[in-house]
Amino acid sequence: MIKVALNGYGTIGKRVANAIMLQPDMKLIGIAKTSPNYEAFIAQKMGINIFVPQESIKSFDEAGIKVAGNIEDMIKEADIVVDATPNGVGAQYKELYQKFGKNAIFQGGEKANVADVSFSSLCNYNEAIGKKYIRVVSCNTTALLRTICTLNKLSKVEKVRATIVRRAADPKEVKKGPINALVPDPASVPSHHAKDVNSVLKDLDIITMAVIAPTTYMHMHLLNVTLKSQVSKEDVINQFLNTNRFLLVRGKSKVNSTAEIIEVARDLGRIRNDIPEVVIFEDSIYTMGNEVFLMYAVHQESIVVPENIDAIRASLNLASAEDSIKITNTSLNISK
Ligand code: NAD
Q1: Residue 277 carries which DSSP code?
Q2: Would you please indicate which residues are annotated as catalytic (active-site) residues?
Q3: First vs last Cα of the chain: how many Å apart?
Q4: Hey, whose CA ends up nearest to atom 40 of ligand 1?
Q5: Quick one: DSSP state of residue 302?
Q6: Into which CATH architecture does domain 2-137+304-332 fall?
Q7: 139-298: what CATH class?
Q8: Domain boundary assignment for the chain
Q9: Whose CA is nearest to atom 15 of ligand 1?
Q10: Is 242 helix (H, G, I), strand (E, B) or coil?
Q11: How far is the CA of 12 from the centre of ligand 1 (A)?
């Protein structure tokens, strides 16, 4: 059993922690929390060990939350740390991981140079095998890379042009906006997502544009991909149907929006309404010669969870890409 520590128990961290607990080859030794808030109370109720900064032990004690030790104790005990702290904080923690000689998985809010490799399970698992520091790319980039690498198996992807409609905030974030505007983000082109895709697929010709929209549910991507050869709509549909981590939804099933996708997740009884698959609107798939057009939705809170689990296995060379993806999907009940 690999001992995994989780630093930064927020939107991504709590989901990765849950996923670790479901893996047959991993044990969650604990999480790091900085404040004794509701998330700490719930983690305690779930029986998770909580590690805190040395100076915060007293405030956790006063709040009635049992502390297992300080954050350094947690790192020392772990074989590997998943860092899901806010943007830029992970880079500060890297020194500590290095000090104790521990492997670490970082998130997409960190700069690419925090790690030895930026990671996407379906694109470059093999490149990440044995790497001490791996960065799982952001939610949008994870979806772009999954999609591009899947189409690339059908026919070589030569060019990608993508428009990203980004959710303004996660559901729990009360201080973010906009609540009544569409905001180019940034106003200049390309958006940073293209560069992030290039952190994995170095030579890909890709341009992205992004707009922030007042919603909390999901992102939406509008993609135009040029392939080396001509493909049919059926080829594209079959390619996604036969690949892990995609779901296709049809208009005639009345799933025509991100709201209805989240309702599907609720009805399926998915934990936290999570839907880590890239959800493709099947009716949007259109082909013209070598070009493929499609639209899909991305659940930003959960899409990177399976990739974090695979990154742990890649870093410690625990399994092949195929085996890791299979174990992760089965344990998390992810559709094929
Ligand atoms: P978050 O704010 O929800 O969670 C971060 C957690 O880290 C919070 O619980 C916070 O209290 C804790 N924290 C803050 N400082 C800390 C410290 N010094 N030590 C330990 N814990 C500390 O953030 P998030 O949305 O989960 O984002 C985490 C990372 O994941 C970022 O790199 C982000 O870019 C990336 N990411 C976020 C999303 C998303 O949609 N939320 C999607 C993909 C990737």
Answers
A1: S
A2: 139
A3: 26
A4: 300
A5: T
A6: 3-Layer(aba) Sandwich (3.40)
A7: alpha beta
A8: 2-137+304-332, 139-298
A9: 85
A10: coil
A11: 6
